[in-house]
Amino acid sequence: MTRPRHRRRYVLLGHHLILQRDYTRFGCDEFKRRGYEVRLISCWNVLRNGQNLDTQSESFRNAPGVETPNSREELFEFLDTLQPTDFILPMVGLTYENYWLFKALSERGLRYSFVNRGKIPSTYLLRLTATSGVRRLLGMTFRNARQFLTRLYNKLHLVAQIGLDYWRIDGPLIEIRGGVYQAPFTSLFPFSGKSEKVDVEGFELFWAKQSEDDPAVTTVEKYALFLEGGVGNQPDAAIWNIPRPKTIDLYFESLRKTLDKVEANTGHPVIIALHPKSSYSKSEADRLFGGRVTIQGKTAQLARNASCILVHYSTSMSFAAIYRKPILFLTNSTLRDFPEGEYVDFMASWFEQVPLDMDLIDDQSIAIPPVRDDVIDRYVHNFLRAKNASDEPAWVVVSRTFEHLMPFTPNRPSL
Fold first, then answer.
1. Which of 41, 88, 316, 368 is the most buried (most CB within 10 A)?
2. How do residues 333-352 score in pLDDT, each as one tens digit?
3. Which of 318, 306, 377, 309 lies closest to 347 in space, CA to CA?
4. Are β-strands 224-227 and 9-14 bridged in parallel, bridged antiparallel, or unpaired?
């Protein structure tokens, strides 16, 4: 039996690391301001299934105050201290290996919410345009159907694996979403359709607003910006045991040629916005990116002043929509070998483009597609901010919705 408490808790359940960046973007300061006790719980030691990988490094480590239970029993002891009026936000997906966590929450009458504010396309936008053509449109339709059947199979397979326990898991209380897009059967949570939908701004809109008053980070007046996606240097790849492509050197050779040609065609140097989790040394970055300027942690500011944006697949592509910048999607054989390589094509289709193949640019000039307001507006509504979303800060809206759904009367100590 839980002891009475005088205030709510906000519990962030991380799968592995909880970075300072996560502390900011998941609204911990707002919940503190509202009187919540903030608890940050890294579940890596419990969920890693015996792996001994040290996920922390000098530039990639837990924020201060993160707790790391070492066994299910230790985690369950913490869950036993929680109450239904505590706001619980897992950064953990539902899989057969970890469904026990969501079952444990449900058995204790604890409701969880989930965040869907970093959306990117996972299907093709089906439109007959000059860039698509009938043959390409038919191919995209077939691949969308294949994706639909794959997601349906994955969900049915998960339900079959878990068995009756799947239906003993409570669905999410709140879905916090930036944009209305949701491909069918993307969510593996049970009863997710019954969750309260709270429309707020997406993460990139949040970062853009956070950086509004920040000064420019480069003295270069006109430049193109390449959004580096951590293709060869992503700590998450080690965490999830994703093998480094054998053709990674060919990828960087192809990328450098492409950036050279962009500079020649536009007359603007290319600056590299490094992924927030990349950890290249200066000499390594100079070698891989052809001696170009590389800047980390300032992507919004860089995108705001760029003449155009180059990208593979990344949520940061949304800065092109926020700042209404021309954008060009780049792919090649190395990227297509990644499990998520097709996302380049998905994203490009929403901007009514065909990605530029960097392996085939020797005899091509590179033209940057113009900005189209109808394309940008459609993208923003689907992936960044629904038309009916509140103008208030996201976590103000979320906390107020939660407190309405789960009223809390503090227990006063007796005199």
1. 316
2. 988 887 778 899 999 999 99
3. 318
4. unpaired
